[in-house]
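The passage that follows is intended for readers who have already worked through the single-chain material. We present the inputs for a multi-component assembly, then the predicted structure in tokenized form, and finally a short commentary. You are encouraged to pause after the input and sketch how you expect the pieces to fit together before reading on.
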Amino acid sequence: MLFTIFAALTIAGAVAAISLRNLVHSVLSLILAFAGLAAVYLLLGAQFIGFAQILVYVGAVAILIVFTILLTRNDGTFGTSSQASWNLGALIVIAVFGTLAWTIHSSAALQHALPPQPEATMQQIGTALMVRFALPLEVIGLLLTAALIGAATIALHEKQERP
Amino acid sequence: MTPLSSCLMLSALLFSVGFAGVLMRRNAILILIGIELMLNAANLNFIAFWRYGSAPEALTGVMFVIFSIGVAAAEAAVGLALIISIYRHRKTTQIDRINSMRG
Amino acid sequence: MTWIVRNLWLIPALPALAAGLTALAKRHQRRYSAALAIGAMGLSFLLSLCAFSQVMLAITHGQPSRQVVNFPWFEFGNQWLKLGWMLDPLTAIMLVMVTFVGLLIFIYSTGYMAHDDNFTRFFCFLSLFAAAMLGVIIANSLLLLFMCWELVGLTSYLLIGFWYHKPSAAAAAKKAFITTRIGDLAFLVGMLWLFSQAGTLLFYDQGAGCLEHSALTAMVAHLTGIGMAASTGIALLIFAGAVGKSGQVPLHVWLPDAMEGPTPVSALIHAATMVAAGVFLVARVYPLMAAHSDAASALSATTALQVVTWIGAITAVFAALIAVAQNDIKRILAYSTVSQLGYMMMGLGVGGVAVGMFHLITHAFFKSLLFMGAGSVIHGCHEEQDIRRMGGLSKLMPVTFATYAVGMLALCGFPLFFSGFWSKDAILHAAMGWSISRIPFYLGSLGALLTAFYMTRQVYYVFFGTSRLASHHEATPAAHTAPPTPHESPSSMTFPLVLLASCAILLGAVGTPAWPWFDSFLSGEAPIFAFAGFLEHGILPVMLTSTLIVFLGLALGWWFYGRQPILSADLPDALEQLQPGIFRVLQNKFYVDELYEHTVIRWNSALATFSDWLDRWVWNGVVMTVSNLVLGLSWLARSTDTYLVNTSFDEGCNTVTTSGKLLARLQSGRTQSYLRLVGIAFAALVLVLIWSARS
Amino acid sequence: MNLTPSISSLTVVPLVGALAVLALGSNRKLARGIALAFAFLALIFTLLLWHRFNPASGTLQLEEIHAWIPVLGVQYHVGADGLSLLMLLLSTLVVPMSMAASWNIQEKPSLYFALILLLEAGLIGTFTALNFFHWFLFWELSLIPAFFLIRLWGGSQRATAATQFFLYTMVGSVTLLLSFLALFLYTGIFDFITLGELARSGHLLQSLATAPHGTAATADRFALLICLGALLGFAVKVPIVPFHTWLPATYAEAPTGTTMLLTGTMSKMGLYGLIRILLPIFYLQMRSMRTPLLWLAVATIVLSAYAALVQKDLKRIFAYSSINHLGYCLLGIFSILKFTGDDPAMLSEKAAALSGVFLQMFNHGLTAATLFWFVALLEKRSGGLRGLNDFGGLRKVATVFAGLMGMALFSSLGLPGLNGFIGEFLIFKGVFPLAGWAASLSTLGLLLTAIFLLGLIQRVFAGPLNPSFAHMPDLTTAERLSLFPPLALMVALGIYPQLVLGVINSTVLHLVQQLR
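Having made your guess, compare it with the prediction:
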């Protein structure tokens, strides 16, 4: 029951995020969608992921987008694509969703019985991250640093050249 | 409908909505938002398969999602930086005006 | 081994050092360079006297008169090539002669060349020449001798062309070098042959030298394909080198032209020393020349010596004939030199080393005397060389005249008091006793007659009568100065003349039949004084004959040129009036130069042109043909390409371009259109997968 | 620890130099300075190698072997004996001279000097490589810079000359390559030393007999064919008449500094190949052709000397004179094919001829390069004129110039006391007993050399002064100083040839022992 509510909340937020004309409103709806999703994670027993979702997406990404919107200001056009390409896009989206849904529906792999609820404590995750996934963790750290520097460089470059 | 398939359906819906945003809006920021949604849909899939799949004690799905979130954060940072940079050049964030890569 | 033998190398090294230092001198450092050259030469002279006395001492004490010092030079394969020097009577006597005459000519040159711009360079070349010539003399290795021999040729070349701005001088220098090099190449081949036969080029090396008994025996025994002993072939080839250097027929053509050089050069190089090097070479390798198999009689001359004799005799007469009709004072002397060198060769051929060498030494003194006298005359007459325009100089240049007369009488062989008489007499005596033929003797006598005649002619032209220099200068409009009067030369020039004149007289004393000091010195024996020497078989008749011949020559000269004074420079020669045809042939030197011009030189340049043609048209032609063929093929291939391959290829290209353009439209640069395609593709893919899984 | 450089490091020096010149040499002075510094560094390395070299041993020294492509039998194998060392010294000596002669080049100086250094690297590699694979790489490497040097900086006919040069040598290289590929096909060996040993033991012919349809008889013919192919490659490079027509045009059109390199060092590559590669591997085949080869050598000597007589361009005269001088080397090399057997007298003659050949190679490199240098100096003063009849009486205004060039000319003419004589003497000394007729005919070349060189002196330096050169400057102090080393070396070698002969003698003996 809870799942249905949160799912509806998520979908509603997502639809609002992509269809609202005001960009700031879009972002607020996006935050709603992210929050809904976080709730779904909690329902599914992945507490860590749920909180990470809120921290990263709601706390960081969404704020970042807001800043971007403020920085680029409003260039006056919120419009969707031209009518023809809008139609085409919609058609394609429906096709994709259809294939996905049909696949999920007809998949035999989904007919399993429910297994016991797995434990995903912080300790387990921490141990796994530090032992089995130590190298990927390092790599992701490196990637983040690189991305950070890269983003800073790309965004700052012009400013320095044109004071 | 089993819990797994409903999760997957949610994920598919979310993905389609994100995809629709990417395809049907012209503002680069909105496209980025769409992409974020698609990523989240994928994350949801991982969690669902971890929760209902076999050998959940290996934590594979969780790990995947953790790294995916990391990558997504990086991607968002770089993508937005690019958008700012492009905006400085072209004074627009409309994606269909940015077509200098045309063949 | 005494100090002087060990340090004999100093004798050539000193002038070489002087040459090196003078080469670095500035152009205006005249006194410095002259002093350097003369000082070095003087020291060499003193050392040569030391060497000479060393040999004298050795002979009087009955010790071996030949001492050698050999040293290794470089290695090839398993052996070292050795060079060395030696001191023997022949070396000693030549050393003294060359350094003495050289010293005098150096002193003379300071006067003669005083006004020349390139004074320092002149002394540099002269010193270098002296060094090389002394190297030839002391060499105990045919290779070392050859090397110095070539260097002598180089300095001769440099000095003949000293006044290089005169084209004739430059041409004469080149001619001299090349003509002598023809002989030198034969020499080189002979040397190589000798090397391969004897295994060494050292003359004397404690029994292992190439002029010593074992090597000679082997070479005599070794017969070549045409039945000639190897020794004969080698000797003849080496003699060819001597022919070139000593201006023997047929390679004599360069020597008269060499008179283009400054007169001291003519005196030193082309009268006294270098041209005599050929004679010296024959004397040096005399054991090889005279080597005969044991079977043959020791008395009969070897083939090599016969050739030497004949070439010498022919040259003696041939050159003397030409000298009769020349008008250039130095050319007359040059042909006279050629003729006298012929005598020396003949002397070597018929009488052995001592006979030829004696004439070489006496000739060196009186011929350099004559040349320097001629130089003095030319200097006094302001560079006039034509004897027809001289005359009457006996009163104006008394010292020159007196010394010139001494030289002339010595050259003619005036009896008893002049050295030339004794040396020439020795040759004629030996020729008369030659076992092969009497003809060389007759030729020699004829040469003596001609010598006396042309020298009388020259002296009458130059020194007697009235001066024709002034009249000539009046006749030419170019004379814008007052007619120059001949004057006596400075003392630096007359002093050597007097010294040489006394030598020309006194030297005769050492080679008379009564006291054959020279002969015995060369053979390393103590001389014996005995008047009985005159009474030896055939000596007195020969002396009488030659005396008669000399007087006949002098009288003939007087008859043609002395009876009435020569009045005008333009008057034809007395002989020309008598026999114009013969005179013209003689005046044109038997047309030998023209003969060479029309044969050897022309063939040579024809061959050169042919070779160039071969290069340009045949060798290159083959290459060009091949390359043209290849080019033709490639042209064919290109046309095929253009009209067949390219057309279709272009079509293909167009198709590709068009389709490319079509495809490029897909490349809209719009991300969304790409994503649309991705979406379609994804859906299609899933459908296909599911469908394929189903079926 | 041994501080002396190895052969590989010597090869690398000019390569690094070329890169450095290209990278740093934006202006002319810097470029030539760097280039000269590297050229001198290479010279110093060579002298250090020379010092380290043990002259008492005739075998290869300073060897370096590294596996490279084992499947193809390719090793990196370098080493030097007396001959290699002599050629190394010559190359590293001529390169600075050539640079000095091109000191004032105006167009793209950094590229020019870099190409020269590259050429030097090719030369050093060729003279030390012992495996066909990289030997051939270096052989070709030296060709490419030479082509560009001629093509970009040459005279008015440079395009034709460069193409002719390139195609000619390329054809030679191709036949050479084919020959060695054929050898490799049947033996599987690229190493020169091993191939030489195979040839001596007779296994080479056996291997060739394994060719399809091969018998002992066809093996002989096949070996001869392979030998001819390789010979052609070297014959073009030396060159041997009638494969020489590229040379006069190339030498005349190349910039004079490059001509110095071409004649001083590149012409030695062919001779070096003949001695190091062809003779040990194909001794039997070469021996069967000895009489025609000797005739070719004599023709090279005599015809080129005759052709030089009628040339009107100084560079062409020296080009033909160069062919003539190399002809003596050919004569020496081919004459040692004459006798086989252990007769010590004959071995000694062969040693003399080979010693002479080595010495002559060095001497000719030195002298010819110096002569072309003088031509460069003359061109600089005359504004590019270099015809035989363009000058006259220069001795009056340029005494030192005339004197020093005269010295080089007389060295080329073989005057005793200068370096040219000993080499020629030793060659003739060795050849005369081996092939007397060839030696005697070849003396004609000596005479003709004298004629055209003296004619040159007569036309250029003697006679009345040509008024257009009345103010020609004499040699400057810098020019005198830079000319001093080669001229001093000429005199030193003329008086004391043991300087070189001492180093090569054991090598000569070793070679003679091999070739009998």
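Commentary: The two ends of chain A are 57 Å apart (CA to CA). The first helix of chain A runs from residue 2 to 19. How closely did your sketch match?
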